[in-house]
Amino acid sequence: MSTPTLTKETETRPGPAATAGDAAKEWNPALRPGSGKTPAARLRLYARQGGNAVWGAGAIILFLLLWELGPTYLAPASTRVFLPPLHVVLEALGTLIANGQLQNHLAASLSRSASGFGIAVVSAVALGLLVAWYGALDRFLNPLLEVFRNTAALALLPVFTLLLGIGETSKISIVAYAAFFPVLLNTIAGVRTVDPLLIRAARSLGLSNFQLFQKVILPSAVPTIFTGIRMAGTSSILVLIAAEMVGAKAGLGYLIVNSQMSFLIPDMYAGILTVSLLGLLVNYLLVGVERHFSRWRTAVGSRTA
Questions:
Q1: Same domain, 277 and 131
Q2: Which pLDDT tens digit goes with each residue over 112-158?
Q3: CA-CA distance, 183 to 290, in Å (whole number)?
């Protein structure tokens, strides 16, 4: 008996796995994945995104409005002396920029903060990798690291000043000390949370210890390390401002305390506002760097999705 052959109709007929939804997508292009949105749908999407952006900035907008209107309409007249409205502070900020004072103070603070922050990141990442990888070194250094980790950086500011003077060395050192421990602890945590299966697979492929650190451990620990780096960036700025208030002739901390002592209250608030904006900018820059070094995670996730 001859085997029946399949006709063209039976070859193209949908199988039992086909559903009504699949047929609808086949005959209606608008239902296919990745099909373009209509103009009305795009307009609704943009409106929703704009509303979310406004809602996300709502608290900041309300705070700025309260700062502008509160000293004028909601507080006694004497309050304006110690809390000037926002437009007065912005005028003072513009004057400081116009005469070049703000740029000089900002450059001094940035150079000190960047130097101490860079020293802290390099040394903390290197030591964190060694401590997390070698258990004997961890047991030896952990008690000492715990002692210094729980000692506030500002509590040691007089010690740094006495030993290193009131020059640049003491300020850079206190910044490096404050930024060191967040990076160190997050580096240790990031290395210890690497999937052991990845390490075994890398060793089975014959990778050396250096290649293992370079290709497996560091890429896996990058998100956790950058969490510590972002914390250290904030700490370096805050500690530096406090150090500049004690003994300095330039810097944002010096600008704030000198304006307060000279009763230039708008200039003082202009310096505080500059510190806030600087911290926000540093955080966004570090987030961008983290995304750059973590692109491989997004690429792998998109391929496996």
A1: yes
A2: 888 999 999 999 999 998 888 888 888 898 888 888 888 888 888 88
A3: 14
236 to 44, 55, 66, 123, 177: CA distances (angstroms): 43, 31, 30, 15, 9
Q: Dihedral through CA 127, CA 131, CA 132, CA 135, nearest 10?
A: 170
Which of these, 163, 184, 160, 189, lies nearest to 172 by C-alpha position? 160
The amino acid occupying position 212 is L
Q: Euclidean distance between the first and final Cα of the chain, in Å? A: 49
User: 273: closest CA among 147, 150, 106, 89?
Assistant: 89
- The pLDDT tens digits for 34-50 are 445 677 777 777 777 76
Query: Please, is 51 exposed, middle or buried when counting C-beta atoms within 10 Å of its C-beta (0-12, 13-18, 19+)?
Result: exposed
Q: Are residues 50 and 189 in the same domain?
A: no
Let me know whether 108 and 72 are in one domain. no
